[in-house]
Amino acid sequence: MTRSRRPSLPFLNESNATLQSRPIRKRDPDQPSLPFDPMPARVEPCLALLKPRVPIGPDWLYEAKWDGYRLAIHIEPKGVRVITRGGHDWTHRFPTIAAAAKELGVATAILDGEAVVMDDHGRSDFGALQRSLGGRGGKRASNESILYAFDLLYLDGHDLTGTELAVRRHLLEDLIPEGSGTIRFSEEIDLPGDELLDHACHHGLEGIIAKHRDQPYRSGRTGDWLKIKCVESESFMIVGYEQSAAARGGIGSLLLAGKKGFDWVSVGAVGTGFSASDAEDLKKTLDRLKTNRPAVPLRGKRYVFVQPTLIAEIEFRGWTDDGSLRHASYKGLREVQDNAAVFDMTGFGS
């Protein structure tokens, strides 16, 4: 499924001269210790745009879609920082990843990647990652997590964000040791484009990511990166729950909503995917958020409404005609620090 790691070779043009992505500037002799480019405190991440079909052509490369927490690993002379997508310092939550980054042998670098916990079949498991961190709001450090690095934004004094992706990944691959260490290179999937998604789905992956080889690193959802999913998975706000005397933990289902402008729109409920202990923890947390003013106009004798605060990651198989999730399953809560975006219903179904 993945291409084999080849010996490192420089990028060559037709005359066999090594290509440079940018001109090398001479260092100022009066300030010999300054980097060529100041290291940014943070780079807003490039995000993948959801598409229904795999883009085909030589301009695209393909990777597995990892199901975890997006992280930026800042390697600096004074140490390593692990920064979440929302800009929070979580070095203490991912100590094994931070320790592995120190061993990469570079003075300064920024790696872009995804922290995951793998299941017994070699697939990333978001719920297992959440449990390793102690659940939402937990304080536990995850020693089981590994990092799949897929981009390199800064290296030894050089800002690489203006450089094309193919060059950035070439440098990244050289940086990361081969094998099954704590930091791994997210390999390119070397299959014909029309077979990619079927292959990924057959092997139980969440989907694939397609990236334009020649583009620089641009923050936000620019369309340079695309995500194509086997099973849909999005973030929704929990706006209440249905009480159940029969269900262990006292929760029969969670009431969910998407965002539309400044309002919340009901997308139905989810009653599977959480264990009895998950339900007990959820009920304790949700009961502290009870409100008499529901975020969405729902009616139910056993409904308990809560303030729209907790964001859940939900896997589902499509939508009903009335805008509810089909075959929804709960995967876990998103952390505030993860900066997860609640599903936007604007224009949905129009």
From TrEMBL:
Record-linked Gene3D superfamilies: 3.30.1490.70, DNA ligase/mRNA capping enzyme, Nucleic acid-binding proteins
One function term, GO molecular function aspect: ATP binding
Enzyme class: ligase
Annotated keywords: Ligase
Catalytic activities: ATP + (deoxyribonucleotide)n-3'-hydroxyl + 5'-phospho-(deoxyribonucleotide)m = (deoxyribonucleotide)n+m + AMP + diphosphate
Pfam family, one: DNA_ligase_A_M
EC number annotated for this UniProt entry: 6.5.1.1
GO biological process, one term: DNA recombination
Domain spans labelled ATP-dependent DNA ligase family profile: 147-229
UniProt region (Disordered), positions on chain: 1-37
PANTHER family hit by this protein: DNA LIGASE 1, DNA LIGASE 1/3 FAMILY MEMBER
NCBIfam families: NHEJ_ligase_lig (TIGR02779)
Family, per entry: Belongs to the ATP-dependent DNA ligase family.
Protein name: DNA ligase (ATP)
